[in-house]
Automatic annotation (TrEMBL):
Chain intervals for the UniProt region annotation (Disordered): 143-166, 413-434
Gene Ontology annotations of biological process type: tRNA wobble adenosine to inosine editing
Protein's name in the database: A to I editase domain-containing protein
Domain A to I editase residue range list: 57-289
Pfam families, alphabetized: A_deamin
Record field: compositional bias (Basic and acidic residues): 143-163
Biased composition annotated in UniProt, kind: Low complexity: 413-428
GO molecular function, one term: RNA binding
Family matches, as SMART domains: ADEAMc
Protein origin, superkingdom: Eukaryota
C-alpha cells in the first residue's frame, strides 16, 4: 500500500470538522458574510493489520495570551490557541484518556493505536542488545504488530554502569507507547505563523518594508524585521496589541522534531511519566499547496544546506529522543471557513467578516468551545473555565492516572525528585494543611523526571533555535 496521501490526510480532518455541530464553527452573519478561522488536525494512520486513518484531534483558533496575563493564568488559561498548537494539546489529552482506558483494561487489553510497553532490566539476559534506530525500526517491521514484549533500546550511554542506572530508572516509567507502525500527520489550513510563512507575509503587505519594531538583539516579534529569515519569532499580532511571548507555530513545530509531539507531563520519565516519546514524532505536515514556499519550508524545518536545523542531523539524546524531521506535503483540498482571498472592494467596504473569536477543540473523547483560552461562558479567573487541555487539567489527570497505575502495580505513590534542592526545598508528594500539593508546577518541571526532555530543549535552544525566550510566569501554582 502506498504511503497515505496529503489529500487523504486533509480530507480526514475536514470531514471530521464538517461533522461538528454549528456551535463549533465560525458564524455566518445576518448580512451573509462568514467569519473565518484556521483549522488544524492530527491524523493517525497505520497500514497493518488493516489500513486505517483517523482524525484524533482537531482544533480551530488564531490567538494567544498576552504576557501580562500569564501570572493570573494559574494553569487554567491556555497560553496559545493557534489551531495547530491546540490540536497538539488535544492529541496529548486523547493519549492520556486512552492510557486511562488501557489502565482500566489491564495489561491484557489491546488498543488500536497504543500499546503497553515492556520494560525490563538488561541484567535479565533478554534485552542486552544495542541497536540504532534504523535497525530498531527494521526489527519492528519484521515483528508486525506483536510488540507487547519488545525491548526498546533508548540510550546512547557508553558505560555499562550508566546503562544499568538508566534501566533502573526506566522500570515503572512511561508504561505506554504508540504502536511503532503508527504514523502521525498534521494538517493545517494555512501555513504556520513565523518563519515558514515569512515570504507569504511579505508578499501580502502593501508596503513590504519590514516593520522595525524589535531590535535583532532580542527575540523578534511576529512580523518585525521580516527581512530576517530563519530566526525564532514570537507569535504575530497587531502592532498595537499587548505583547505575547508565545513562540510562533513555525518555531514550536520545528522544536517538536526534537522533543516529539508529547507534552512534558505526558512524556516525563521516572514515576511521573506515561508515554515513551520515541514513536511520537510527526511524519507529515500537510498544508494548502498555495501556502507552501519551498525555500521557506526547507529553511524553517529542514536539515539540508539551507535548513536551520542542519546541525541536528542524526542527533540522538537520552530518553528516546532523536532528531526526526517531518515531510511537508501540499494539498488542493479547501477548508470551507478559510480566510477569503478577495480584497476589500474599491469602495473600501470590507467584503469579508472578521476572524472568528471562538476556538473549537474535538477529539474522539471530548469536545469544547473556547474563547480567550477558557471554556465559552467562563471568565479567565474561573477554575471551572479550565479546558481539559490546560496545564492544570493535564497535570491533574496524569497524576491521578499515575496513582492508579502505582496502586495497581502495588508500588508506592509517585513522587518526584527535585534536581535543585535550593529552588525546591519542599518534600515531594506532600500536601499543605489545606490539602493542596506542596509541589508547584514549576518544581515538577524542574524535577529529574523532566531532565531528558529539558536537556533536548536546551541543546536545541543553544544551537539551531537561538533566542528562544521562555514564556515563564504561569508556573508558581499547585493542584
Ligand atoms: Zn500560529
Amino acid at each position: 500500500m502506498p504511503p497515505v496521501s496529503a489529500d487523504a490526510i486533509a480530507d480526514c480532518v475536514l470531514t471530521a470538522f464538517q461533522a461538528l455541530p454549528a456551535k463549533y464553527k465560525p458564524r455566518s452573519l445576518p448580512d451573509g458574510r462568514k467569519e473565518w478561522t484556521i483549522l488544524a488536525g492530527i491524523v493517525l494512520s497505520r497500514e497493518k493489520p488493516t489500513p486505517a486513518l483517523k482524525c484524533i484531534s482537531l482544533a480551530t483558533g488564531m490567538k494567544c495570551l498576552p504576557r501580562s496575563k500569564l501570572a493570573e493564568a494559574k494553569g487554567n488559561v491556555l497560553h496559545d490557541w493557534h489551531a495547530e498548537i491546540l490540536a497538539l494539546r488535544g492529541f496529548n489529552r486523547w493519549l492520556v484518556d486512552e492510557c486511562a482506558e488501557m489502565a482500566r483494561l489491564g495489561r491484557k487489553g489491546r488498543h488500536e493505536w497504543l500499546r503497553w510497553r515492556h520494560t525490563r532490566s538488561r541484567s535479565d539476559g533478554t534485552g542486552g542488545e544495542r541497536s540504532g534506530r534504523h535497525e530498531d525500526e527494521l526489527q519492528r517491521a519484521l515483528d508486525g504488530v506483536q510488540h507487547t514484549d519488545e525491548h526498546e533500546p533508548e540510550h546512547e550511554s557508553t558505560t555499562g554502569r550508566e546503562e544499568d542506572t538508566m534501566d533502573d530508572a526506566l522500570e515503572g516509567s512511561q508504561p505506554f507507547a504508540l504502536h511503532p507502525e503508527v504514523k502521525i500527520h498534521l494538517y493545517i489550513s494555512s501555513a504556520p505563523c513565523g518563519d515558514a510563512s515569512m515570504e507569504l507575509t511579505m508578499s501580502s503587505q502593501e508596503d513590504s518594508t519590514p516593520w522595525a519594531t524589535a531590535p535583532p538583539t532580542d527575540i523578534l516579534s511576529g512580523r518585525g524585521n521580516f527581512d530576517l529569515l530563519g530566526v525564532v519569532r514570537r507569535k504575530p499580532s497587531r502592532p498595537d496589541a499587548p505583547v505575547t511571548w508565545s513562540k510562533s507555530c513555525s518555531d514550536k513545530l520545528a522544536l517538536k522534531q526534537c522533543t516529539s509531539l508529547l507534552s512534558g507531563v505526558v512524556s516525563a520519565g521516572e514515576s511521573m511519566g506515561l508515554m515513551w516519546p520515541g514513536d511520537c514524532y510527526l511524519s507529515t505536515l500537510v498544508l494548502p499547496e498555495d501556502e507552501i514556499v519551498p525555500e521557506a519550508v526547507e529553511r524553517c524545518f529542514g536539515h539540508g544546506p539551507t535548513g536551520r536545523l542542519r546541525t541536528l542531523t542524526g542527533k540522538r539524546w537520552q530518553g528516546g529522543y532523536t532528531f526526526t524531521p517531518f515531510t511537508v506535503l501540499g494539498t488542493d483540498k479547501v477548508f470551507a471557513y478559510a480566510k477569503p482571498m478577495t480584497p476589500p472592494s474599491a469602495t473600501g467596504v470590507q467584503q469579508t467578516a472578521n476572524g472568528s473569536n471562538i476556538s473549537a477543540l474535538s477529539t474522539p473523547t471530548r469536545t469544547e468551545v473556547l474563547i480567550n483560552g477558557v471554556l465559552q461562558g467562563r471568565k479567565q479567573n474561573d477554575l471551572k473555565g479550565a479546558s481539559s487541555v490546560s496545564r492544570r487539567r493535564m497535570w491533574e489527570v496524569v497524576r491521578a492516572l499515575q496513582e492508579t497505575l502505582a496502586t495497581t502495580a502495588g508500588t508506592i505513590a509517585p513522587t518526584i525528585t527535585p534536581t535543585n534542592t535550593t529552588k525546591n526545598p519542599e518534600p515531594a508528594g506532600q500536601h499543605t494543611s489545606d490539602g493542596a500539593l506542596k509541589e508547584t508546577y514549576k518544581s515538577v518541571q524542574l524535577s529529574s523526571a523532566f531532565a531528558h526532555r529539558r536537556a533536548v530543549k536546551e541543546d536545541v535552544w543553544s544551537t539551531a533555535l537561538q533566542r528562544w525566550n521562555r514564556n515563564e510566569g504561569d508556573d508558581e501554582w499547585r493542584l
